[in-house]
Amino acid sequence: MKKLLTLLGVTAVLFFNSSCNQGPTGPEGPAGNANVKSMSFTVTANQWYHIGTTGTPGERFETILTAPIITQDIVSTGAVNMYLSSNGNQWTAMPYTYPTGTGPTYGFTESWICSYSLNQAIIDLQDSDFNTQPPSATVFVKIVAVAASGRIANPDLDWNNYSAVKAAFDLKD
């Protein structure tokens, strides 16, 4: 009797499942890449704050950007690339250091340094003479958070070239 009831139950389940009509296929989802996400920021002169004492090591200006794309998974196993622009069109990978001053000899270097932690990106501006001046103009920042699988799948990608990264992952501005 138990076997008969089990057999009838299995038959009923198969009958009802086979008589269901499948609905129409839904619309295609938006294009994108689940392994890579990006954010853009406009950082104005009043978003920087001074750290340290002028003339002493460690003196700099810093801004902290809220970036929810920097998840715990990204912090633990992924990577974050940051790019800087003065005009929003040409991008330079950070960290970035360049000489300042005039002539064949330069007085000091200026460094744009980036770091990150969960949900935030930190950008520091520091001069080698420890007399850093705050940025007087607006700068533009792109943050690209890459899951480990995205890095592994693209070993030959020039990660310092934002245009190449944007093209490889179909990132939107």
Question: Taking Cα atoms only, what radius of gyration do you get, to the nearest Å?
Answer: 26 Å
Overall pLDDT, averaged? Answer: 85
Please mark out the parts with pLDDT under 50 across 5 or more consecutive residues, or reply none: 1-20
In whole angstroms, how far apart are the ends? 67 Å
Category by helix and strand content:
alpha+beta
Order of helices and strands: HEEEHEEEEEEHH
Total domain count = 1
Topology (elements, then pairings):
Blueprint: H1 2-18, E1 36-43, E2 49-51, E3 60-66, H2 72-77, E4 79-85, E5 92-93, E6 96-100, E7 108-117, E8 120-127, E9 139-146, H3 148-152, H4 162-169
Antiparallel strand pairs: 1-9, 2-3, 3-8, 4-5, 4-9, 6-7, 7-8
